[in-house]
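pasting for ref. prot 1 ->
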Amino acid sequence: MQRWNFRYNQLLEKQGVINYPLRVGTVWHDAQEQFYATKGARVSVATLQFLDTDIPSQVDIEEMKYWNAVLPMMMEAYSIYYKADPIKWTIHAIEREMDIKYRGIRLRGKIDIIGTDKNGNWIWDHKTTSRLNLDVVAGWDFRFQFMFYLWLLSKEEPMKMKGFVINATKKTELRVKKLESLPEFGVRVREDMIINPNKYFFRYQYIITKGQLEYFEKNVVDPKLDILEYIMAHPNDQLAWSLMHNKNTDECQKWGGKPCPYIELCQHGESHRFLYREKDEKHAELENEAA
């Protein structure tokens, strides 16, 4: 709740921090959208660029060059491996936005793909990941996002859904060799992905069982909205303040990853607010083309 409060309520983002996983994922989603919208006929991978508010270091500049060389090659390999998708799948919607009112509260989301194969109707979620192992895959089965999107869609769409599809692509572990140019490295990444697709591509269908969406509504959505309603009805109440600032300390530092961007604000309070700036948009991935 604390991170939600900082990110979506107070609209804070840490100055000078360039979120490459988000930006790379945004470009990847855009390329995926083109691939399925044109049935594989045309994909132009966008070039990553710095924003006016960015303060890039030399490391940031080099990382941007890296991704601009690698992402187009990743998409070429993806297009080859999944070239039969336009035949196997009937695509009903791409980047489907959902916007409902439930219990008087506006709830929104965006689904990457709604499609049908021989087994039924599914929602898709494109993922890029640095790790692809059993621990990562097992965690996906319980992701709130996927069940929430299925539940949202059930409020808008009479189409019976079979479940959700994880469409994951692993980022390469190859490293640039000495004297190897980035274009040459990109070609080597593409070749490795084509030769060893099982290292990079993972797709799995998670089936929802009868009554699972009703259970999700009763035991997950409603309790969360109960808390939100209490906070909105009692903004100056001590309990509301405690709920708003409740910290999930398991998320402060992920194994092998970077710390939460709001960790200084949590640790030191308002004295470190100068490290953050207030965004103009509440949910850029919904207002713009990012996902």
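and prot 2 ->
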Amino acid sequence: MSNIIDKVVVITGASSGIGESTAKLLAEQGAKVVLGARRSNRIDAVVQQISTTGGKAIGFATDVTKRVEVEALIQGAVDSFGRVDVLLNNAGIMPIAPIEALKVDEWDRQIDVNIKGLLYGVAAALPHMQKQKSGHIINIASVFGIKMFAPGGDCLLRHQGGCARVDGRTADGTALPKYPLHDDLTWRGCHRTAGEQFGRSDQEEFAGVHENGHPGQHYRESDRLRNRAAGRSGSR
């Protein structure tokens, strides 16, 4: 895929799962990938794996709930490669519990990671994209944003439904019409990844409902994200 070669792609939540797989696939296709995640040891390992196979990758310890760290991630991409062509807002968590459990700390954490973390990425990357007059922002959203599952009433889904619609498009379907910039949403199913993707509160209740963790699933999702990053259309 020639139109991804040398594009600078920043990926949050890149230490495992879809983020890691996408980074490796894009690097194989010639992109320069900039990886961010909280676990610096995992990010370093992924960067090493990509570099060993001839790819170009750098990594930064990044907690997306901290705006200064997200800004440092984007600035690191610019300092190292001169620009930011694509931002993939992939970091996200999904604790799940009946709403009457009143796990307010989990609600706060979801908002901080899934909504504010995404917006911090947009705020950090957009000025660079406007300056260079090109760019592409891809936001990963849970399929729960369009198909609800709520045994006993669940706050997660209400939140995910809102988060999934963080979208820069205008009413006529265009994005940032003053510039040749694009933003997209792509829906993903459920994947078990390291860390707190599923949270730790009620995993047993959710485990039997829906899980697409079979071999190759991450790479099929990565293929779709690669096409988005390269400017090709995909399912929305």
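Confidence is low (pLDDT under 50) at residues 152-165, 195-219.
Residues 115 and 163 are 6 Å apart (CA to CA).
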